[in-house]
Each structure stands twice: as structure tokens, then as C-alpha cells.
């Protein structure tokens, strides 16, 4: 009899443990979760990489003789910029900038220089993109060169020309001074006059102001984009259609 009671007790304990065990939720699937699909890249989210070089044509003349810091600069793209078989910057897009620094050549020393920064790009539709752009090169302007990474345009050295001018003016001064001195004081006067005339001629040549940097209308300028620029491809398409 005790054995029967013991068997019934063990059976009851087993049934209680089974009832207390958590049951799987019938609404939860045992199949592995499907990973979410990656978002599709927007084909119209375009960009102009940093370091891109775009040729421009200047729309107004600029000279260190009369330019002032803060003056506006106007140019337009001379050739389309294309990436992945898409035109991102069409030819004829307006580029606006400003003059950040101007320095004229000194009397007998220093060279004229001018610094231009490009600040915005205006598509034919009116779509405007802000940009940081600098002058990389000035292939259309003779006697000028870009001297630093910031894009400062500098007049080429005139050392050789100044020496040549000094020699010519010294010779002219010698002749003129000798003539005047000879008329005033004979041979000694001619010698003194020649020396004074030569010194005056050389001094005038070496102390005159150097040439200005001048960029004429239509001058070719190469602009470099200084950081990546995001561009809306849908608005570029409108700009192209309106050309």
C-alpha cells in the first residue's frame, strides 16, 4: 500500500513540474528573422570631390592698380565637369567670388599680387551651390603665376628688366649729363655731369613701381574645389534642359 502511495505522489510531482514549465508562444515564429533590406542609394545625390579642377573664363577685367579687397569677381565655366557619365557642372555655369587681398608692387622692390576666393556656383536655372574654391592656375594670363596653395596670383619677377632699364637709363644719363656739364664747365664739368647723369638714370629705373597683375576679360583661370561639394542631381537636369 505504501508503494502505491509513493508512486501516486511521484506522479503528481512530475505533472506539477510539467504544468509550471513555460509554454512557447504560438504567435512567435521560430524561423530566423529576415535582415532588413539596405536603403537604395539616391542616384541624384551627387558630389564634386575635393581637388576637382574646373576651367573658368573671367567675365570682367581685374588689375591690382584699381582692385580693392571685397570686390566681387565674376566668371563662368568654360567646359562641363563630368563624373560617372553625368554632367555635374555644365559649361556656362556662373561662378562668383571676391578679392581677398591686393598688393601693388613697390618702388624698386616687391611684386604685385592678388588673392581671389570663389564662393558660389549658379546654374542656368538659378540653382545655387555654395563652395570654397581657389585659383590653381592662370594659363590665360602672361607674366603671372600662382605662388602658393591659397591661390595668390603674383606678377613674375622683373629683376632682369630692371637691370636692363637701369643700364639704358644710366647710358642716357651719362650722355645727357656729360653734355650739360661740358657746356657749363669744360672737360671737368663733362666728367662730373656724366657721373651725376648716370646715377640719376640708374636710380630712376630701379625705383620706379613694378608692373601690376592684370587679368583681362576672357582670361582663362583654373579653379580648384577645396572640399567635397554636395549637389542635387535633379536640379542639375533642370539646369541642363534650360540651356
What does this structure look like?
This protein has helices at residues 2-20, 159-207, 233-241, and strands at residues 45-48, 53-58, 62-63, 72-77, 81-83, 86-89, 94-103, 113-122, 128-137, 144-146, 152-155, 214-215, 220-225, 229-232. The protein is α+β, with helices and mostly antiparallel strands and 243 residues long. It has 2 domains: 45-157 and 211-241, Type IV secretion system, VirB10/TraB/TrbI (Lipocalin), CATH 2.40.128; 159-209. It has a 6-stranded antiparallel barrel. Strands 1-14 form a two-stranded antiparallel sheet. It has a two-stranded antiparallel sheet with strand order 3-12. Strand 5 and strand 6 (86-89) form a beta hairpin. The longest helix has 49 residues, at 159-207. The N and C termini lie far apart (106 Å). Residues 159-167, 169-178, 202-206 and 239-243 have low confidence and may be disordered.
Summarize the structure.
With 243 residues, this protein is an alpha+beta fold. It has 3 helices and 14 strands. Strands 2-4-7-8-9-13 form a 6-stranded antiparallel barrel.
Amino acid at each position: 500500500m505504501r508503494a502505491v502511495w509513493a508512486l501516486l505522489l511521484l506522479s503528481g510531482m512530475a505533472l506539477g513540474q510539467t504544468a509550471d514549465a513555460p509554454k512557447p508562444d504560438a504567435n512567435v515564429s521560430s524561423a530566423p528573422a529576415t535582415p532588413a533590406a539596405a536603403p537604395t542609394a539616391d542616384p541624384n545625390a551627387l558630389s564634386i570631390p575635393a581637388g576637382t579642377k574646373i576651367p573658368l573664363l573671367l567675365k570682367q577685367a581685374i588689375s591690382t592698380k584699381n582692385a580693392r579687397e571685397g570686390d566681387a569677381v565674376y566668371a563662368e565655366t568654360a567646359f562641363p565637369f563630368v563624373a560617372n557619365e553625368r554632367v555635374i557642372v555644365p559649361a556656362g555655369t556662373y561662378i562668383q567670388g571676391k578679392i581677398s587681398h591686393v598688393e601693388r608692387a613697390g618702388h624698386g622692390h616687391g611684386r604685385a599680387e592678388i588673392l581671389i576666393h570663389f564662393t558660389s556656383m549658379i546654374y542656368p536655372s538659378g540653382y545655387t551651390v555654395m563652395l570654397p574654391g581657389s585659383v590653381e592656375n592662370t594659363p590665360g594670363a602672361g607674366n603671372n603665376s600662382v605662388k602658393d596653395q591659397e591661390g595668390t596670383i603674383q606678377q613674375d619677377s622683373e629683376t632682369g628688366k630692371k637691370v636692363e632699364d637701369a643700364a639704358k637709363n644710366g647710358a642716357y644719363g651719362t650722355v645727357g649729363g656729360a653734355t650739360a656739364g661740358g657746356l657749363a664747365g669744360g672737360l671737368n664739368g663733362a666728367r662730373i655731369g656724366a657721373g651725376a647723369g648716370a646715377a640719376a638714370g640708374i636710380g630712376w629705373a630701379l625705383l620706379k613701381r613694378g608692373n601690376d597683375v592684370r587679368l583681362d576679360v576672357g582670361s582663362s583661370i583654373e579653379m580648384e574645389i577645396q572640399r567635397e561639394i554636395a549637389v542635387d542631381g535633379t536640379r542639375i537636369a533642370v539646369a541642363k534642359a534650360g540651356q
